[in-house]
Every structure is written in C-alpha cells, then in structure tokens.
Specification:
The structure holds two protein chains of two kinds. By secondary structure, chain A is an all-alpha fold. Chain A contains nine helices and no strands. In chain A, helix 3 packs parallel to helix 6, helix 4 runs antiparallel to helix 6 and helix 6 packs across helix 8. The N and C termini of chain A lie far apart (77 Å). In chain B, strand 7, helix 6 and strand 8 form a beta-alpha-beta unit. Classes of the chains: A mainly alpha, B alpha/beta.
C-alpha cells in the first residue's frame, strides 16, 4: 500500500504553456505574429513530411490509386458541368467582344487560351476543393476526434504515411488530369455556342486555336494544376489532422480547409502567372 | 514490468499529472481508478507514447520509452495493444478487416494465415457472425469486443484498456470485464485498465491505483484498497458526497 508524496511547486518550465494575455497592442501584434509563424512552420513541416512519405518505402500504391479515383473520377461530373458552362459563357462573351472588332474567327483562340492558361486550372482546383477537399478534411477530422488516428499510432502505423501521403499523391495526379478534361470540355462548350449557335466558321474556330495555343501555354497550365493539387490535399489534410474535439471542431476544420485552400489557390495562381508570363 | 517514474504533464495552464509513480507488474492486471478528468486517460496515453511527458519517465522492462525517437517508439509499440474508450474502429472497414488490419499492415503473413488468426480472435470475443458488419451497425458492447479482438490479434505483451465499459449496460459491463479477465489469464499479457466501474473492476484487477488531482493517492491489491483509511479512497469507494472530493471540481 502506498501513496505519492505531496508534489513540489510546478516548475516554471513545465508544459505547453499558453501565451499570457497580451497587455498592450504591441504585445498583441507580437503574439499574433508568433502564432502565425508557428502555424506556417507547422504547415510547411506537415507538407514536407507528407511529400517525403510518398517516396519512402513501403509504397502505398493501392491507396494512392484509390485516392486518384476518389478525387479524380468522383469529381468528373461536377467538373464536366462547370467546364461546359464556363466554355459556353466564354463563347458568348468572347463572341460579343470580338465581334466589336470584326475578329469573331479568333473565338477559338480566345476560349482555348483562357481555359488552358487560367480558368481550367483555377476552376478545376476550386471545384475539387469543394467536393474532394472538404470531404478529405472532414474524414480525417472525424478520424482524429474518434481516436482512429491515435489507434493507427498505437499500431505503429504512421498516420502521415497511411492517410496523408496517399491523398497528396492522389491529388497531385488527379487534379492535372481533371484540368485537362476541363479544358477539352470547355473548348467544346465554346464551340457549341460560337459555331453552332452564333455561326462562327468551325474551321476558323479550331484552326486559329491550333495556331495560337503553344506548348508553353499547356505546360504552364499543367504546372499550375500540379501545384493546386498539392495545395488542396496539403491544406485539407492538415486542417482535418489537427481538428479540435467535437462536431464543431470538424465543422470548423472543414470550413477553414476550403476557405484557406481557395485563397491559396488564387494567391499561388497570381504568383505562378507572374513567373510563367 | 511497466513502470512510471515522476511523471508530470501540463496542458496550457492546467496541470494534469503531478509526479506519478506507478509499477504495473508483468502478467498482471492493474486497474487505475479515479474521478472523471483526474488524468487517467492522459496517463494511459503516456504509457504508449501518444503523449510526451513534460518531466519523468516510462519504462518497459528497463527500456525507457518516453524519450524514444519515432522509429524506435514504433518498434516498442509492437509490444502494445490498446482498446480505446470509443473503440476507435475504422469506420470504412468491416469488423473482419478492422481486426485483420494490424496483421495486414505490420506483418508479412499470407492472407490465409491472416484470415485464420482473425477468425480465431473474433471467435474468442464471440463475434464471428458479425464479421461482415460495419462499425456503424454495431452496439457499443460489440464495438468494444471488436476493439479487444483487434488489440489481441498481434499477441501483444501489454494491453491498455481505456474505460472499456463506459456507456454499457450492466450485463454488457459484466461480460466485458469477464472477457478481459479470461483473455488476460489465457494469454498472460500485462493489462492496464482505466475504469470507473466500482466495485466490478476489483474482481479482475490484481492491483488497483487510485488517482486524485493528478497523483496516485493509494495503490495496492483490491483488498488493501478496500481497507485503506485514506479519506479520498473512502469517499470514492463509498460514493459519498462528503469528503475531500468536490463535485464541482
């Protein structure tokens, strides 16, 4: 029979002590900057570890392929609808604008370049964020609050390898493929409006497109979509992985994941465009 | 032997563990009891490395596991199994695949052998018929039994049970306790059971430790604890309002 002695006073260095309440605006700014820096540092480390696990054995090829299916194939319908109507709107707006200068024959070029360089990667990424990214954050968040991630840890299975790396790999593969699909559907959406409805010459539509779209445009769009695929899985997995307790925690994580991914997609889009131009 | 020495843990400004010292002998069942929120689960999570101590050490047979790097910790964890309070079953997998999961992920066994071992564990927890069901289709008691089968499937030397009977009806509570006792006797693992089930837990434990305010205030055999004159022990076991334990704490 035994009992513990009365413990000594708590050492000042113990624990993950929260920052004390700032007493002045300067202290508040400093504390916010510290929190922001820590958050960004954790996110970058999370991405580094996740990407590293993609290439480290044992390979989780089957899980990555499953993610390509979940993120890619399952998003085909919503991407198709978005792409078709985006192409159709571009057809209408492009025709209206070009007809002012008597250049309707350039409609194919305008639609294709807009889609391949800009709208295809960005809109595809936003649709994937809404459909697959939110589900990624919610699924991992629920696994966190229901102790399933802890269970993986106790079985000596690294959750980063098991949950995050396959999603990163799947998203990096699926988003460029979806973007290519978006571009093709969008171009035919513009074709239906421009050629079938408004009477643009079909030969001119595709001919001008072929002469104006260069490989550098396609590669630029591909680079963007690769980056966006990475951003979606990175942010959404991170938010789910560190979701707080309860349904409200998962809900907050999911919302933050979608908003932050979308904002980062736009910011990264500007950055890449300025570099690639 | 699983040993804890001078374990301290603090979250924010809340001091949860205040210098815990506890020995859990091999091949025996140690129950950790105490009020909700007194730090029992935090203590259990330290034992398997899910939390890192601010100060203090945890030893498994002389090996300190609380300071191991991730890779070494994962090797040490192969000696552990854990049954979580929520059972923590993977909801995308059915019962059979949940139990087979550690074998498929952590061993190179052939699929027939994995199936044989999984069926055997499911038979031991009397859930063979439920193999094709998903966790969402199971009752609370069934989930705990699947969790136990999954914890047992790798034949661990130490199994940690985090409130295995919380939320269950008295019959199921009794059944789970009996299952823990029988499997512990059969396989001889070291069991650490965090529980609120007083006095039922006394029937399966070789040693009981009472936690209060982040410390172990009393430990010993069930008989020794029952005979203790410590006011916290008396109040907790007697479930009385008056005493050092404050309800709104």
């Amino acid at each position: 029979m035994g009992g513990a002695p009365v413990p000594p006073a708590v050492p000042a260095s113990l624990g993950d002590r929260e920052m004390s309440q700032p007493r002045s605006p300067v202290a508040w700014v400093g504390a916010s900057a510290m929190r922001g820096t820590q958050f960004m540092g954790r996110m970058v480390l999370f991405l580094g570890v996740g990407l590293g696990w993609i290439f480290l054995p044992p390979a989780k090829l089957r899980r990555s392929i499953q993610q390509v299916y979940d993120i890619g194939v399952q998003s085909l319908f919503v991407v198709f609808i978005t792409a078709a109507f985006t192409g159709m709107v571009l057809g209408l707006q492009g025709y209206y604008t070009l007809s002012k200068f008597g250049s309707e024959t350039l409609l194919g070029s305008a639609v294709a370049l807009s889609l391949i360089r800009e709208l295809g990667p960005v809109l595809t990424a936003l649709m994937v964020t809404g459909r697959a990214g939110s589900s990624m954050a919610a699924e991992i968040g629920i696994m966190r609050i229901s102790e399933q991630i802890d269970a993986l840890d106790t079985m000596a299975i690294d959750p980063m390898k098991f949950l995050v790396a396959p999603r990163l790999a799947g998203s990096i593969v699926a988003v460029p493929l979806l973007t290519a699909f978006f571009d093709v559907v969008g171009i035919y959406g513009g074709y239906i409006i421009g050629v079938k409805l408004l009477g643009v010459n079909p030969g001119a539509y595709f001919g001008e497109m072929r002469s104006s779209v260069e490989m550098v445009d396609i590669i630029g769009g591909l680079i963007k979509s690769l980056c966006f695929g990475c951003i979606i899985a990175w942010v959404c997995c991170y938010m789910g992985y560190f979701a707080e307790r309860g349904a409200a925690g998962v809900s907050r994580a999911t919302t933050t994941a979608v908003v932050l991914s979308s904002a980062l997609i736009f910011m990264w889009d500007y950055l890449l465009t300025s570099v690639l131009l | 032997m699983l040993s804890i020495r001078g374990l301290w843990k603090q979250f924010g400004d809340q001091l949860v563990l205040r210098g815990i010292d506890l020995d859990m002998p091999s091949g025996k069942t140690t129950a950790i009891i105490g009020r909700s929120g007194c730090g029992k689960t935090v203590l259990l999570k330290h034992c398997i490395g899910l939390l890192k101590p601010d100060r203090g050490s945890i030893y498994v047979d002389e090996q300190e596991i609380s300071r191991l790097r991730k890779k070494e910790l994962n090797v040490a964890r192969r000696r552990f199994g854990m049954l979580f309070q929520s059972a923590a079953l993977f909801d995308s997998l059915n019962v059979f695949d949940n139990v087979a999961f550690p074998l498929r992920e952590k061993t190179t066994l052939r699929e027939e052998e994995i199936r044989r071992r999984t069926r055997e564990r499911l038979r031991q927890v009397d859930l063979e018929e439920m193999a094709h069901k998903y966790p969402a289709e199971l009752s609370g008691g069934m989930k705990k039994r699947v969790g136990l089968a999954r914890a047992l499937v790798m034949d661990p030397a130490i199994i940690l049970f985090d409130e295995p009977t919380t939320g269950l009806d008295p019959l199921m509570e009794h059944a789970i306790h009996r299952l823990i006792r029988d499997t512990q006797r059969q396989f001889g693992f070291t069991a650490v059971v965090v529980s609120h089930s007083i006095p039922q837990i006394f029937d399966i434990a070789h040693q009981v430790a009472l936690m209060y305010d982040g410390q172990i205030v009393a430990q010993g055999t069930p008989e020794e604890l029952r005979a203790s004159a410590h006011p916290v022990v008396q109040q907790f076991l007697g479930a009385t309002i008056e005493g050092p334990l404050v309800l709104d704490n």
